[in-house]
Amino acid sequence: MQGFMIRRVVEKVIPLRDFLMGDLGISRKMLTLVKHEGEIEVNGNHRTVRHVLEPGDEVVVRFPPESPSTDMAISDRPIHILYEDETVLAVDKPAGIATIPSRLHPADTLANAVLGYYRQIGLTSAIHVINRLDRDTSGVVLFAKYGFIHHRFSELQKANALTRSYVALVEGKVPIQTIDAPIGRAENSIMERIITEDGQRAITHIVDCQQFGGDSLLTIRLETGRTHQIRVHLRHIGHPLIGDSMYGGAARMSRHALHSASARFIHPMTGEEVMIEAPIPEDFFTVTNE
After folding, report:
1. C-alpha 187 chain-centroid distance
2. Which residues are catalytic?
3. Taking Cα atoms as reference points, which of 143, 135, 158, 142 lies closest to residue 255?
4. Which helix (H) or strand (E) holds 215?
5. Cα dist. 276→121, 171, 263 in Å?
6. How many helices (H) and strands (E) does the chain have?
7. Which secondary-structure segment (H or E) carries 159?
8. Number of neighbours of residue 270 by Cβ within 10 angstroms
9. For 89-118, how does the pLDDT look when each residue is reduced to its tens digit (9 = 90+)?
10. Per-residue pLDDT reduced to its tens digit, 25-42
11. Are the CB atoms for 94 and 133 separated by under 8 Å?
């Protein structure tokens, strides 16, 4: 069983360790794993990380093969693929299913369905979720097909090279604005969040507001990623999501009206910009006030 492989040509004199960690972005922990369970070759020969590279040298890194958790169920639920290449998969998650397994939802989640898809295409890899969505939030969810790619996306997020936008349906007209209000856990609740001075800083940008029937369709970008951030911030300004029973939204929808509409990132392998979009779901159109 073959694991993930990277092949690169060196352009300068540099120690192999520095090239692997700096130029290729392999973490110290992952490099240790490769040294013990994978392979590192220079011009077809096995080399230690102390080897000094010359311009024109070809470096090949073979990561250890991955396998999914034996406890994870395989689901035959169909998935709607928005984008796929050798290392990244983007799926349009429907509302009403969890992103990953939990005690309440152990088997029929999006991750279980992706694992079933991997089995169909012969990919024997673990599940690496790049971004999670609440059970009732629909839209773009990204998966890395390999652990190294997952690590690289974590670095992209830290460098603001992965951005996502949401659309939200609310009652009333909302001005374009930035909400900067700290979020913490509500007392006596394991789920609900509130605005609190001792919470974590949370920043939400409302970048557009369009009339949507008798409601407003907001385009939102997050600067931080706190639990329930959009939902809490919209309640804070007096415009909770339609259907959001936890945060006081109008009971006109069977789920809260939040959709992960797009993801834009610099591809960790090609360096090219990738833009992925998920269309607004039908229930947004059927619930609007005319």
Report:
1. 29
2. 134
3. 135
4. strand 215-222
5. 22, 28, 5
6. 6, 18
7. none
8. 10
9. 999 999 999 999 988 788 899 999 999 999
10. 999 999 999 999 999 999
11. no
